[in-house]
Each structure stands twice: as structure tokens, then as C-alpha cells.
């Protein structure tokens, strides 16, 4: 079974703090994604990565950065957390294999509260 | 660019009744279509997907969906729901040549005993 793990289920941070969200997948997937999920808005793509050290902006990258130093790990960084970044953050991965690429596998999510 | 519409934000239904969750998409290119389910306090998991071939797709837990190209729809159905089906359901679309997936806003299914 594919497993995607996220470092924390719940986080509480203060405005202005630097926040790191870690995601690890164990299926040797090339693609990794970070989404935020808000009620009524569904999932919105923040950043994604096709390979190590590669990153692409998604639909809402402002206020975020990412790092992918190893294939299995994709980190989301909030340089200076703000209250409007309070949300559920979901990490996902997918394969570039032609038979598997269409399915994304999700972690359990990190619920971040910024005070 | 692709987009997804889920017209119903909340769908309450009695246990053992049938349910249909509606999804419409827009795209100028060929697409793949997906339904994902999110149970409370969990991440998303794939319910079913349409890539090509038969327009009627069967998924896990007794769900099925039908791709209708002329109506640009991919509605999800189950003939008899169970309490355990209470969850958030997301329709999603991806252009066949890209890896990005666009998600709809979600439909919250509540099964009433």
C-alpha cells in the first residue's frame, strides 16, 4: 500500500512564526503536491514538484515556499505565518508511470491554526 | 484550463436510499475524471476514475459514475447508502497531458439513520 505521511496532524503557531510542514511518501513517486483545503473552496494547489530539486507554483503560492531535496520528501514552508493561512494542508503524491500517474495518494492532513 | 462544478454543497439522504452527487466540468481538451472521498479527519482516497473506454465506471464501496461527454458531466451514484458513506466527496479533472488535478469544492453527504 502506498503511504503518505505528514509530520503533524495538528499545529498551533503564532503570527510571524516560520512554519515547516513535512511530507514523506514511500512509493518512489516522482510527483508530489501540496494543497490547502478550506470549506466551500475544495482543494487548492499551492506548489508541486515533478522531481528532486524541481518545483512549480500552483494556483495559490503566495506566502509559501517548498523544498524537495530528496525524492521521498516534500516540505512546505510558511515564511511568516499569518492568520489567513489557518487551514487544513494536504500532501499528495503520484507516479509518472503511465498506468499510475492519474491517481494521487493523500496524506492524512495537517490542521494548522495561526493565532 | 479545466474547472469543476459541484452544484450541491450538502446532500442529506436516508440510510438505504439511493443517492446521486452531481459533477460538471469544463475543458477544451481531453480529460481524465475522478471522484475522491474524504472521511472525517482523514485525507482523500480515490473512489473511482475515468480514463478511457466504457463510460460507466465502477468504484469501491458500491459507487459508480457515468461519463457523459455531451453534457460534460460525471455524476456519482449509489443505489443504497450506508451510514458509513457519510463523508465529503470531491470530483476532480485532469487534462490527459498534465499531472495537475483540479478539484471541485466538494459535496458533503450525510446519511441519516
Quickly describe the structure.
The complex is a heterodimer of chains A (115) and B (113). Chain A is mainly beta.
Overview of the molecule:
In chain A, strands 2, 4, 5, 6, 9, 10 and 11 form a 7-stranded mixed sheet that branches. A 4-stranded antiparallel sheet of chain A has the order 1-3-8-7, with no helix packed on it. Chain A is 0% helix and 52% strand. With 115 residues, chain A is mainly beta. Chain A contains no helices and 11 strands. Chain A has a single domain, classed as Immunoglobulins (Immunoglobulin-like, Sandwich). Helix content of chain B is 0%, strand content 53%. Chain B contains no helices and 12 strands. Chain B is globular. Chains A and B meet through strand 5 and strand 9 of A and strand 5 and strand 6 of B.
**Which two chains have the most extensive interface, and how many residues on each?**
A-B, 24 and 21 residues
**The CATH topology of chain A, please?**
Immunoglobulin-like
**Average pLDDT figure of chain B:** 92
| Shape category of chain A | globular
CATH topology of chain B: Immunoglobulin-like
Summed up, the helix count of chain A is: 0
Largest sheet of chain B: 6 strands, mixed
- Uncertain regions spanning at least 5 consecutive residues of chain B: none
Distance between the termini of chain B: 41 Å
Could you give a short account of the major beta sheet of chain A?
A: 7 strands, mixed
Question: What is the string of SSEs of chain A from the N terminus onward?
Answer: EEEEEEEEEEE
For the structure shown, list the relevant keywords:
heterodimer; A: Immunoglobulin-like; seven-stranded mixed beta sheet; four-stranded antiparallel beta sheet; B: 113 residues; Immunoglobulin-like; six-stranded mixed beta sheet; globular
Amino acid at each position: 500500500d502506498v503511504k503518505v505521511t505528514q509530520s503533524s496532524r495538528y499545529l498551533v503557531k503564532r503570527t510571524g512564526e516560520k512554519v515547516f510542514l513535512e511530507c514523506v511518501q514511500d512509493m518512489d513517486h516522482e510527483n508530489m503536491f501540496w494543497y490547502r483545503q478550506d470549506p466551500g473552496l475544495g482543494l487548492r494547489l499551492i506548489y508541486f514538484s515533478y522531481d528532486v530539486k524541481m518545483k512549480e507554483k500552483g494556483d495559490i503560492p503566495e506566502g509559501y515556499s517548498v523544498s524537495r531535496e530528496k525524492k521521498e520528501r516534500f516540505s512546505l514552508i510558511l515564511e511568516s505565518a499569518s492568520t489567513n493561512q489557518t487551514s487544513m494542508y494536504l500532501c499528495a503524491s503520484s507516479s509518472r508511470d503511465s498506468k499510475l500517474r492519474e491517481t494521487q495518494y493523500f496524506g492524512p492532513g495537517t490542521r494548522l491554526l495561526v493565532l | 484550463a479545466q474547472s469543476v462544478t459541484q452544484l450541491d454543497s450538502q446532500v442529506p439522504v436516508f440510510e438505504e436510499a439511493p443517492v446521486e452527487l452531481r459533477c460538471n466540468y469544463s475543458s477544451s481538451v481531453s480529460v481524465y475524471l475522478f471522484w475522491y472521498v474524504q472521511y472525517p479527519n482523514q485525507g482523500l482516497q480515490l473512489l473511482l476514475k475515468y480514463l478511457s473506454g466504457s463510460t460507466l465506471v465502477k468504484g469501491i464501496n458500491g459507487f459508480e459514475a457515468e461519463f457523459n461527454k455531451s453534457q460534460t458531466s460525471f455524476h456519482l451514484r449509489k443505489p443504497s447508502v450506508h451510514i458509513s458513506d457519510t463523508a465529503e466527496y470531491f470530483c476532480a479533472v485532469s487534462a490527459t497531458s498534465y499531472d495537475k488535478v483540479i478539484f471541485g469544492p466538494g459535496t458533503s453527504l450525510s446519511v441519516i439513520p
